[in-house]
# Entry
Amino acid sequence: MAAASLGSLFRETKKSFFLRRNDFLVFILIGSVVFGALSAAMDIRERMFHQQLAQKLGVSEETAEDLYSQHKRSRFDESKNDPLLIALEQKEVEDPNAYLQQKGNEKMPGDLLVVLISVLVGIVMGPWIYGSYILLALNRKKGWKAVAKEAWNKFLTILCIGFLNGIIFMGAFVLAIALFFVHPALGGLGFIAWLIFLGILAPRLNLASIVALIENKEAMTAWKLTYKVTKGYWWKIVGNGIVFCLLAVLVAIAAVIVFGIISAVFSAIDPLFGMIILAFCITFVQQCITACGITFATKLTETILANPRKS
# Structure
């Protein structure tokens, strides 16, 4: 069996995705609702902060947001006047910097809570949805409920593989950064070495979760098997990945423009509702692209497993 061409991989991806489109849609909607809600929560908190600032200054919310953005930029360029501090002084705020610091401190606990919840939900939901997309791409004729259950059973395997990859790549990065404290030249060489190391191994080892589900292997076994079977396939993996990413970026840009227009229409009626709609729409696009990307990677992995290269 000859290795599949790029065109055949796209055809197989399209076939698998549309064959199980209803099941894919279930997980896409789950991901969109959960991650969209978390994204909207952070956006709403930012909007509440801008509303408070607008009330204090007696200006519109858009003006307050613009002033705060200029304030954040001016902190990195002391030569520029800070229009927000000037506006607060005009409102007879005794110490504008202290006022903003106080408001930031009041806002921080809620922001940290949202971030913490987002991280915890990502750790739980991410591997589960990722596994579900892989299982659907394999076309094993299981309904979405059976897929969800099987993906949950493989949760620890997918999480451990991600943890292993993280340890290797982040560990190498920390080592490269540590070299800067020895000598800047060594640090520069270490960072270049890390980029090369990342570029060589990451494209191959990122397929480990897919190999684990295809071959029904545990994390370490699948990780080692992936390293073995992807030898000689680096160019194919990277080349196909770059082409897919370029197409995904074009689709994402088009989708964001369309959904941005839709959000603007709703924002004209209710700015808060428009913000929520935009958050969910962007997350929906992200989940669709992720589902297609994982399906594409699964088809590529099946091809690699069916055509092992001789050592």
